[in-house]
Amino acid sequence: MAAKVDLIVLTYGQEDYTIRCFDTILEHSSDYRLVWVDNGSSSQSRKKVMKSFLKHEKRLPIWSNENLGFVQGINLGVDMILKNQQIEAEYIGVLNNDIELTPSWLDKMTSVLDRNKSVGAVGPVSSAASSIQGWEELFKRIEVPFSDSLHDFDTNERAEIMDNKFGDQYVEAPMGISCPMIAFFCTLFRKEVFKKIGRLDTAYGVGYGDDDDFCRRMYDGGYRVAVALGSYVFHNHRTTFSANYESDVVRSIRRKNKAFYDKKFARANRIERSKL
Questions:
Q1: Measured between alpha carbons, how far is 146 from 126 in angstroms, rounded to an integer?
Q2: Which of 11, 117, 128, 211 has its CA 20 to 30 A from that of 96?
Q3: What is the C-alpha to C-alpha distance for residues 62 and 222, in angstroms, rounded to an integer?
């Protein structure tokens, strides 16, 4: 059976978040296959999630025997999708297990890719974020004439407001670290992007900076990235990181990966300038 979208959800423990994510995918999505990449969780953890996973008609379990980290875990899912031709989906979604989906979230994102072939990846508006994907920052950037904020509404009410206000509209992502970028907590990609650009760079280890890097590579490859204004999801930020790493370790990872990014693309920029 064909599906339009393969949705990769990477997990490591945190079963309650995963079950909530899986259940909201089931409730609010259609024409998809759920690709569950478990990053070395215990058998008890997997067993707890399994009942929710089995509710999905189209599904693909991929279980690692060790914790590969975010980057290699997502790459494992992408590799298996590209090798498995039984279901030839047009798009690949990358979802954190700590998000909660809402009505029409996926339809609004696929609509952006369906209508504009130059967009390689699209993300939703979200709850709290320092980028344009956080609704408060978004309203400042595009000067939305709302008399009230979204603070007094629950997740599905916020999604309904955003859908009614913006429908299928989208904006191109603003410049991040030297290129337009979106965060990969909930992102829909054209499958061709992974075939042309490659995978996430494993040099970023467990994560941080890998999304900036991949957006830069998409940008250099001629793709644009966008935010679907009518798509809203709730994100419980950094739950897995907080559960497994102390704050000083996280800061060290971020510094190291930022330095790697700067060095990598400074070299690329010098090469490009030398061709002029």
A1: 17
A2: 117
A3: 32
Query: With contact defined as beta carbons under 8 Å apart, do 10 and 67 qualify?
Result: no
* Distance (Å, whole) CA 262 – CA 33: 36
Beta strands in the chain (DSSP E): 5-11, 32-39, 59-64, 91-96, 99-100, 119-125, 170-172, 186-190, 224-232, 234-235
Q: Is the pLDDT assigned to residue 273 strictly greater than 50? A: no
As for how many domains the chain has, the answer is: 1
Half-sphere exposure of 15 (CA within 13 A, CB side): 14
Could you report the per-residue pLDDT of 51-92, keeping only the tens digit for each?
A: 999 999 999 999 999 999 899 999 999 999 998 766 679 999
Residue 55 lies in a domain: yes
Token pair for 177: 């670290």
Please give the pLDDT value at position 177. 58
Which residue is it, tokens 């309650």? 16
DSSP line for 99-123: EE--TTHHHHHHHHHHH-TTEEEEE
Q: Which two tokens stand for residue 136?
A: 């408060």
- The one-letter amino acid code at 202 reads T
**What pLDDT, on the 0 to 100 scale, is given for residue 130?**
65
Domain containing residue 158: CATH number? 3.90.550.10
> Which tokens is 59 given?
């599904």
**Tokens encoding 275:** 């061709």
Residue 266 belongs to a domain? no
